[in-house]
Amino acid sequence: MIFQTKRLFVKAIDEVHKNEFTELLTANEIIATIPQKRPSDENVEIKFQQALSFEGNIKVNKKTILGIFEKDKNELIGLAAFLTNNDLDRELGYRFRESYWGKGYATEIAEEMINYSFNILKIEKITADVWVKNIASIKVLSKFLKPVKEFYNENDDCTDKRYELLKKDWI
Length: 171
Hints:
By secondary structure, the protein is α+β, with helices and mostly antiparallel strands. 30% of the residues lie in helices and 31% in strands.
């Protein structure tokens, strides 16, 4: 286990989580909130193998994808991503299967990802990018981070808003 919250824990995924992982990357209702095109089966498999190959060091990896689970269960309900954005700043990301939306899990996981980034990884600044029409994630990110700019995201063909938080402002 990497870290936990009151109701959730974050850990590396296993081969048994492939179906839920695939759903998290391909379900229309999930990718529509990003927005992204549905990745190919080959691309999903590559990402799954990358997630499976996690060796425990988030700080040195430019991209780490971990599983989010409810305590005492082994069903993958979401993904927590520690990324590096195009400005080479560390970025957090998360997504949940639709049946787990509206339970406060995104707020809970975002807060603990920030704590983990600052206190364990010793990162000085954390960012998050969100599509300007993703109201639910904007509400979550606005609780902890400050918006700093809007920009056109060529990869997803949309306008994103970047949020950031400095460690000195969190503590």
